[in-house]
Amino acid sequence: MERHHNSAMRTPLNSVAVQRRSKTKSYRLSYRSGIGAASRLGFTPGLTARRLNTSRKAPKSNKITEKVTKEQLALLVKTEWKLSYVTPLYQFRHTQLKSYSRQLSAFIAAEKQQGLAVDVEGTQNHFRVSFSLVQEMTESVDDAVTVLIQIHSKPLIARQDEPQRPVWSGWLTCINGNPEYLRSLPKDFICLPLFCSSEAGGLTSLVKSWFQQSFDCCFGPLEISHTSLQWLMALWTNCQPESSIRQLKMIWTLPVEPQLQVTYTVDAEDAWQLWSSVRKENTAGEGEENSIDIEEVMSFMQGLKGHFFRHFRLDLSAGRLNEVSTALGSAKHSGRIKFSNSKYMITTLMLLTECALLKMPI
Description:
Blueprint: E1 3-9, H1 24-39, E2 55-57, H2 70-76, E3 80-86, E4 89-90, H3 97-113, E5 128-134, E6 146-153, E7 165-173, H4 179-184, E8 189-190, E9 194-197, H5 201-215, E10 219-221, H6 226-237, E11 247-254, E12 260-267, H7 268-278, E13 291-293, H8 294-312, E14 320-326, E15 329-332, E16 336-339, H9 345-359
Parallel strand pairs: 1-12
Antiparallel strand pairs: 2-13, 3-9, 3-10, 3-16, 4-8, 5-6, 6-7, 7-9, 11-12, 11-14, 14-15, 15-16
Main location: nucleus
Keywords: Centromere, Chromosome, Nucleus
Family: Belongs to the CENP-L/IML3 family.
């Protein structure tokens, strides 16, 4: 049985295997060429990046509401998404989305006829697919436009004229992807490395299967590493003056018997004061963007751990950080993310895109 320890603090001021078709050789050559180009920047063969960047831009408010439709934004925000990485898509065309909608609908119907269970609780068994673009949700000229996929069905008990409603959603995106790698890909490949999907696991598997067969790509699970969770804590806390994070909440697991789970909650102002105390002097010139480096993130974490140890005599360094959350969003080591505020979605997606590119195998 798990033991739970809760603390609210006042901080002092001080690879999935898939069957390949004839395009396998072409894909592998293109992928290796991307890695080869990146290796001159210190990257390592076998991965598009050896590790996360040690410095990144400080978060800035992004008026995404002026770029994304209200319907799309309502879906992207408040939903908890399961993360996967996706290798480059072969001959995917943003101009063919209507055709892809029909093809995926037919694919799901065919799988059902073969006896595959794709039922969604409380809905009828007829599904309609729609593909759409999330226009302008990019950060650089090399980013491909985000693609949103929705699967619709009617409730089990519905009037004949009642419209279908979404029962599954997913999207592929690339926000500020590594330009050296993106530019190295042949023109027949599109890189949308981050795949976010809602629940209904059967439908998620079907969508992935169709993409793999149609675009010779590969999906794999994307966990959010301990380091990435710490980056999110720092990035979100940095937003406190402009958009209150309300509180910084962490869930840790300590390796003791029985297992000990620690919930560690920090007041927003205390978190901000600690973060301010470890921030280096801003040396950015006029017109330049401020940045955050990994040393500041590590110092922030050491301050949080140190405070906890002084009060509870528990060393969190021996444990694993499983989840972090603020009013801006939440993230779990298991690979789940939730955006609660659209202003800083782009900052979070930049980090997740980097994670997805790092995770890709050859």
